[in-house]
Amino acid sequence: MNQSHPYDDVPYPDLCYPYTHPGRIAAIATLLGLQPAPVENCRVLEIGCAGGGNLIPMAYGLPNSTFTGIDNSARQIKAAQVFARALALDNIEFQTMDLLDITSAFGQFDYIIAHGMYAWVPPHVQDKILSICQQNLSPQGVAYISYNTLPGWSMILMARDMMLYHVRNETDPQTRAQLARDFITDLANMLPDGEQSAYRAFLKTYADIRFNRFNGHPGWEESSLLHDELGPFNQPVLFHQFIEHGAKHGLQYLAEADFSQVMTHDLPDHTTARLQTLASDIIEREQYLDFVRNQTFRRTLLCHDSIALNRTLSSESVRDMFMMSRAQPGTDSDGDPQFQTPDGSTYPAEDPLTAAALHHLSAISPRAMAFDELLQRACAMTGVAPTDEQAAALAGNLLEAFTYSAQIAELLTYDPSCAVEVPPYPQISPVARQQGRSSRIVSNLRHEQVELDGLNVALLPFLDGQHNRDDLLRELVGLVESGKLSPSRRISDPQQMRQQLAQYLDHALHWLVYAALLVE
How far apart, in whole angstroms, are the C-alpha atoms of residue 296 and residue 298? Predict the structure, then answer.
């Protein structure tokens, strides 16, 4: 495999991917009967690590674990090394290396990540990815592999073929991307309404979604288009084909890293019933579910085929985990209480103990809480004794909520540390500060992508733990007076302007807390 030239010329967007974090992977593995390595002391390998945007935030948050990233783009590896040195991280290393050169001597890892590679490389490299996930995976280890899937990618392949034809005579990467982007937009506008309306609607939807993914970093639109749709390889597969390929390498299907993706809470009862009659096992069930959902992408977890899995999802293991929630209390169309999340998921607030637990998790968000502590708090809120029966009921309901959406109830095997209120001397995560120098899209302390607004970008240099609120306000006033920062509503009176900036500052600081960007 030789992809060094494309990725050296145009590096891939340097992002973190929440579902790849060992803390989330370990929770799912534990639910299904594995005994994964504690994420506070584990070994992680990322194949195709690009500029370290995914691996470095993990290494910062888990200082007693070790991380290795490989990529055959020397430019991206150099950028990753510079990034890691800027944060003084000593638990991570990056190597310019072709994955075909990895042997068993490279060592074993508890978690192996291959995000955005499998569908974009030729078959012999796909084989090697799975081989590494078998030979270099510890006995209770888990491998994460993401890939494009059919049937959802069938229409996108059509767009890919048309764009490749349109740019066939252009060699400059940036020009290829811009020409392809403009062509799809023009083509959608060229088509008349009527018989072609479905085709036109697809092209418009594709353009709207595909070309507006990275508002915080315009150059990433072209980069991702070049390496995804316009790359030399793009081979979506059916889910069952990927699982069969893994089985040839001694790997078995564990689950999806996005656990709610394979649940049917959002489907009509008759659809769920029909799926049960069509499928004789979990692989068939999820393949048919992909057909129903027109699935385009999967984040699949694999483990050694020698492990006996337990798919009954016993809630007993939940009692050893940490809980977190982004859900907010609300009501459904009938006025009944429920919890709702930014991703549109809802969960009924029928059980008083569970409702109390979710209310408390919402109040302390973005922090997580150990189950036993949460049980005690919820029981105190509802005036009941924390018995084994109450514990079992709460654990079962939180597990059910997790299957609805991780934003309703996220299960973690560790406690990601972040501030839950504005500290006297606010300090933003050093990772986010470093990333914010070149992009508005940064990684938070929960390994999520967050987009900063202009005011937060202006505050970045001063969120160093050395400035209190008065200091920060004084800096903002100075930036406005020097013309380096322009408020949305300009006020000529200095006192009124200071009051306005104070309001903006308070809002920004509380948002930074909610976004899990401030350290304790």
Answer: 7
265 within domain boundaries: no
**One domain, residues 246 and 105:** yes
Do 117 and 26 sit in the same domain of this protein?
Answer: yes
- 297-304 and 251-256 as β-strands: parallel, antiparallel, unpaired? antiparallel
For residues 252 and 299, state if they share a domain: yes
Residue 242, Cβ density class (10 Å: 0-12 exposed, 13-18 middle, ≥19 buried): buried
Bridge partners of 330, per DSSP, are 338
The three-state secondary structure class of 101 is: helix
- 26-78: per-residue pLDDT in tens? 999 999 999 999 999 999 999 999 999 999 999 999 999 999 999 999 999 99
- pTM assigned to the model: 0.94
Question: Is there a domain that residue 417 lies in?
Answer: no
Instruction: Give me the domain span that covers residue 192.
Output: 164-227
Q: What is the mean pLDDT of residues 236-264?
A: 96
- Distance, in Å, from the CA atom of 483 to the CA atom of 494, rounded to the nearest integer, reads 14
User: 285 in a domain, yes or no?
Assistant: no
Quick one: 112 and 35 in the same domain? Answer: yes
pLDDT higher than 60, residue 200: yes
Residue 395 one-letter amino acid: A
Per-residue pLDDT tens over the stretch 343-386: 888 999 889 999 999 999 999 999 999 999 999 999 999 999 99
Q: Which token pair is 63?
A: 């200082």
Cα 487 to Cα 262: distance, rounded to the nearest angstrom: 45
For residues 399 and 252, membership in a common domain is answered with: no
Residues composing the chain: 520
Q: Mind spelling out the 3-state secondary structure of 418-440?
A: CCCCCCCCCEECHHHHHHCCCCC
Is residue 196 very low, low, confident or very high in pLDDT (cuts 50, 70, 90)? low
